Carbon-nitrogen family hydrolase (Streptomyces ficellus), 266 residues
Amino acid sequence: MRASLLQIAVDPDETPNTRRDRVSSLVAEQRGVAELVVLPELWPVGAFAYESFEAEAEPLAGPTHEAMAKAAAAAAVWLHAGSIVERAPDGSLYNTSLVFSPSGDLVSSYRKIHRFGFDQGEAVMMGAGDTLVTVPVPGLPLGVATCYDLRFPELFRGLVDAGALAFAVPAGWPARRREHWTLLARARAVENQAYVLACGTAGTHAGVPQAGHSIVVDPWGEVLAEAGDAEETLTVELDPALVATTRDRFPALKDRLLGLPRPGGA
């Protein structure tokens, strides 16, 4: 299976509608190139553009859904369309990922569980999701996480238990913590013996330079491809059988101890 990560540059001078049109064209160009395409977190507005969240929030079936459904169908790909600022029917905001089938149907949505901001920004503006999501990509069941989720290994363990062989992690990760980004992506791959497709943004979001450096890591922790810090597309070949082979030859997951004894044996 071939997968492409589209590391989108977020230019504050480009309107969200213009960017949707541009990204739709980039996705459509993947027809015959890839079977799975992954976009970054909050690319329509910018992950750190908190002041724009209210104005740019959209319903699940809003303009980004419409544009990306058409793009997925045009390219005939499984499309993880990154995430949007979702406005729920009750008015609450969520950082919500959308995943489309090659026919353009919305097959999954995921509300980000771990919100970044330490009692400000996203952490106070958006609600937290409460459901783990996997996508039935043929041959390569895909676990879905978003950006800050990457720091919480228990989420990925849950996705493994749900059958994930690969993780898609769209992000708007800041440049000042780029080393954490690549380190954590490799750690999640090694500890879960699964592919990690971590797709970030380029450019600057509300004055915050983005890390870029989208990365694809195999189940042994080897980096298959890594982008630079500008807009770029990574296309890699994934072998679903490698997950089973890795887990069979080094069966660390079988040694998991759930419910560890309390300190002192009490």
About this structure: The CA atoms of residues 4 and 37 lie 5 Å apart. The first helix runs from residue 16 to 28. The first strand starts at residue 2 and ends at 7.
